[in-house]
Structure formats: C-alpha cells, structure tokens
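I am still getting used to backbone structure tokens and would like to learn alongside you. Would you supply a protein for us yourself, any chain you care to pick? Start from the sequence, derive the backbone structure tokens from it, and show both lines together. Go ahead whenever you are ready, and we will take it from there.
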Amino acid sequence: MIYCNFIDKKTGYLFLFDESNSRIQLTKLLKTVDGGQTWIEQQLESAPSTSYWKEDIICAKMIDEKVGLIAGSHYSDENFSSRTYITADGGLTWSGIDIQYPQNAFELGLGCEEACDILYEDGQYILICKFRKDGSDIFVKYTSTDLKTWTEIQ
C-alpha cells in the first residue's frame, strides 16, 4: 500500500506499507522538499505494525514536518490505540492514541469507529473519528494540545 500527501507545494510524504503474514507495517517513509522530483528516506526507529489492522489503512498523512497520523479500520469492541498511531518527531517514532468513546456511544448504538483525519487549528490538534450507526456515518471530534491527552469536543 502507498499513501502520499503534501503539506505545501514542495513538501510531501510517501508512506510505504508492507502487507504480509496478516500484518500491515510501515516499511518506509519518504520525504520530498522539491515537489516530488527527489525523495529522501526518513529514519524509522519504531514503525507501526499490527496484525489487528483490517484490510485498509484509513489515513496516513503528515500535517507538518513533525506531526503525522496512521490509522487503520477497527470496530468499537476493539482497542482504538492498537490501530491509531501518531508521530511528533517527523516519523522517527510512533505511539498509539488512546481516546475514550463518546459519552453516549452505547446509548446511540454507535458501531465501527476509526480515525479518519487530523488537523491543526488555533493551537490545537483535532482528531476526527467516524462511527457507524444504522448504515450512516457520524463524526466525532477530539482535541489535544500535547498529542497525548484527547478530549471529545461537545
């Protein structure tokens, strides 16, 4: 699998994943600073790898030269942090994101949950998660200033 995103006209990232032995693993992260003419491999000390990711990576992107997100599909009865990883050092190391389900998730009958985007606005990181209910998507936002503690935006 290959995912690519640009944070500006010249700076972009290419995520290369290997799918083997029921695992999906980030094997290379490449960066360009010249609009894609040349690519430089970024060092990976700890790369996300799990046998629990389903068939897809939902999101693989950098939002600036330090912060990025990799998220795989999963379901509400499974551990969110084992499929949702964040980097704050340009991709060198990755750690799981631990968030709480929305307060009324079970009352609302929310099912499948997955992180689908990350943004930075007004000094805060915003993680957008998608839930399924009766065949429809419901989006819930979480905010953080330190990329460790996430709070649901009401």
